[in-house]
Amino acid sequence: MNKNSSIFIDAALAPVAKAYDEYRPLVNGARILPRVPDSVSMPVELASRYQQTQRLISENGLSVPFLGYAPLFTGTKVYSGKDSDWALMNLSSDPLFRTQGNNLYAPLSVVNDVQSVVKVGINLDAIFIAHEIPKGVLKSGEEVPVDLIAPAPSMKVQRRLSFLERTSRAWWKLVTGTSVGAVAVPVAAGAVTVIAGTALVGAAAASAANAVASASAAAEAAAERSRAAAVHRARVAAEAAAAERARYYYDPALLGVQFDPRWLVNGQPAGLWYFIASWVW
Amino acid sequence: MFALSSKTDFFDPSISLDELARRMKDYDRMPVAIQAGLRQSVGITLASNVVSIPLLGLATYSLSSTYPVQSFFFIFTGGLIDSLLWLGDAVSAYLLALNIISLLLVVTVLAVSRAFTRPVREHYHWMAWFAAIPTGLSIVSTAIITGLVILVVVLTLIIWIVIGTILLLGIKEWAKASEEASKKV
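Above: the input entities. Below: the structure tokens describing the complete assembly.
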């Protein structure tokens, strides 16, 4: 590192404390600042970007707190939190981001917040995402399973999808009932006509039909009971799954980094970390 | 793939805040896996379309040659059966169109969701739901027309049974009268 092109920035990085307090649960859990070196110097360009970013944040009253500096890394790092763990990774490595066609879905207010930050001219070189995960399920370096972090759809979307599923089942039930009825009634009428041709065969057929009808009614009743039990089991399983999901909060947080590849701290590339946003699913 | 920042030595590819702002989408529009009920509906719709489209295609071109019915069996109900066949002939083209629309919708849903292996945007769920309507209508229409044809056949059968019974009774009476006449002689 060229010391002539660097400035001393201990003082600049000191205000971390305030943001650190505000986001203590996340920052503690994720240990974004595991250590603070005695003195740090960084390239002038980066220091100047930092100052400009701070100026834009305060001028526009943005809530993008500066967290401090920390080493940069690739892959996934899992940090232990109080009630849950945190999996921190570059957004481009986020399995959820990848499975959603390299898009990040967030509440509209968060989307608007991020866009307003960009509009004022702030840019961050890399984005990291911290996913809250249940305690002890992952170790650092392991890829986060998508199912673990995938959020459920919003309540209103869930209501609409549930309506679609319900009405779809009802529709097919109606179609089946009507179609079977439309064909079965004339067929039955035909059968009755043929049966009525001879009294003997008619009587035998009638008693057979009675037997078949009662057997069919019994089978239908048993099938109905079985269907009701299956529906009940499915509902219980869905409620259990919902409760299981609700027990954990897979609430992500977005962090942004400004860095310069020439800036090394203890031989490791480091960056200036900002807290961009977090939200609750 | 991404708009790379100029400083990507450690994060290749890295996404800048600028790029993130472009790639952020409203949570309400997040893709969701198609639910079991809709998957089943798409399956039924597809199977039904695969079966009915060739049959309706055939019906559209061949039903017109089946009426007016010349069969002696339908001598009393020829008008009814002709009307039903005409109705079937007239609606088969519409039913075929409905089934083709439905097939296009389900194929789109299947393609986008990669046979239900990928979550899809909400409008594809609506598309899967809607696809069942034309197919269902088509199934019901076909069943009703088929049922009516069967009903006319049954009605014809009843007419013939009644005629046959009357004829037999007539023959019986005639035989009885002949027997009595021959006894007198």
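Note for the figure: The first helix of chain A runs from residue 10 to 13.
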